[in-house]
Amino acid sequence: GNSVTQMEGPVTLSEEAFLTINCTYTATGYPSLFWYVQYPGEGLQLLLKATKADDKGSNKGFEATYRKETTSFHLEKGSVQVSDSAVYFCALSSTDSWGKLQFGAGTQVVVTP
Amino acid sequence: GAGVSQSPRYKVAKRGQDVALRCDPISGHVSLFWYQQALGQGPEFLTYFQNEAQLDKSGLPSDRFFAERPEGSVSTLKIQRTQQEDSAVYLCASSLGTREQYFGPGTRLTVT
Q1: What is the pLDDT along chain B (112 residues), one digit of tens a residue?
Q2: Contact residues, chain A, for B35 at CB < 8 Å
Q3: Å from A80 to nearest chain B CA?
Q4: CA angle at residue B94 from B54 to A24, to 5 degrees?
Q5: Which residues of B are less than 8 Å from A102 in CB distance?
Q6: Inter-chain CB proximity A102 and B45 less than 8 Å
Q7: How many CB atoms lie within 10 A of CB B6?
């Protein structure tokens, strides 16, 4: 079946540091890939997405590239802020599943001033 | 416009009680999903509606879980005879077809 694996947290960084969160997936066909973010006390929000191989999703300074050859969708940001402290979830949606999302376990990111 | 809303936000139930969790999707969204998120884990799919039709209930963990969306708008997730392992955050999401899903704030269920 489909699955998503992402690096465990917490990831603790200083402000302006470079952030990478690794995500790999297993799926049949050509899934769509997503990063969701959950800020403290809030619901899940879509951060970015990519629907086909080599697509790059970007938003709020975050980027992720859909790499089919390595089945990966790593999230990166060049310079994090304290306000980026949150839990980040990698997810996929396969073409035969009504759009339902399969999530990774989440990675908590803590950015200190 | 208004986002997805869920009620109650918090629910404490004694083991064996029945609970009902409500989801109000974004107006016009035909697709509605329920997910269960255990502490420290990612959300797990429970069930999916397209309008009033429940097209996938493969994620419901037992026959104590039941969901409905009778008029293709508001949905209710019901859990009968709650058990401690049912303690989790229950998330509802809606979308236009298979496009981007918008999530509600969730209902945190604690079974004592």
Answers
A1: 589 999 999 999 999 999 999 999 999 999 999 999 999 899 999 999 999 999 999 999 999 999 999 999 999 999 999 999 999 999 999 998 767 899 999 999 999 9
A2: 101
A3: 23
A4: 95
A5: 45
A6: yes
A7: 22
